[in-house]
């Protein structure tokens, strides 16, 4: 750092991802603090996020001297990625509002494995044996979490959490296989499309006094900033290492909801959630170790 000034780009990738995870951890808590109904909460969260991303896209276009159309208009692939991102965002909000936050966050933690399985069946990739074993353990644990609340108050929220994880896994696969996609434009169009879906059942003016504060924090600060740090960090470190760090969101997010609004996870969620986190952490660690061993072998060859 020759200029002596602090720069985000100078941080190690792992620290960048961890900072992003810490920033996004209050997401579930802030959604729960909003007193408006589910559809209204989703409408405003998505609209504010989409508007923030649109401003970012416009600002980048100005810096790069691009035309307004070039800076803002999504490509066909970005539209596809946006559809999945919109599904992710909408399902996440509605899930958090209809089940325990810990249930949602633990189920979403399985996204990397879902992404890997989609890559097998859609893109015909080969998975390591450890991934198949981890998948079986995780899905049995998730089935226990969803099954424990089936027919009860958490059923809809747990199913929506699975929808969140599936949409997110599809989003990662689309972005991962089409490296030319601009993630900001993809997320922007996804947020706006999901907003339109919420319009018929939303009551935009029916907000409690503190609701705008939580929604602005979400759409203007928490989500864009976390995306900035996580994206910057993920480009510098192996996917397995990034995935390992991302698991902390389930822990930090659940802990915040527990401490602030005293929402205690069920015994089933605590036990099965612990199994999921340990399994995914072990899987990511083994993948990271194998990647490093290959790099060492390549250097000595």
UniProtKB/TrEMBL annotation:
Pfam families: EamA (PF00892). Keywords: Membrane, Transmembrane, Transmembrane helix. The keyword rRNA-binding does not apply. It comes from the Bacteria. Residues 13-146, 156-280 form the EamA domain. InterPro entries: EamA_dom, EmrE-like. The chain crosses the membrane at residues 12-30, 42-59, 79-96, 102-123, 132-153, 159-176, 188-207, 213-230, 242-261, 267-286. This is EamA domain-containing protein.
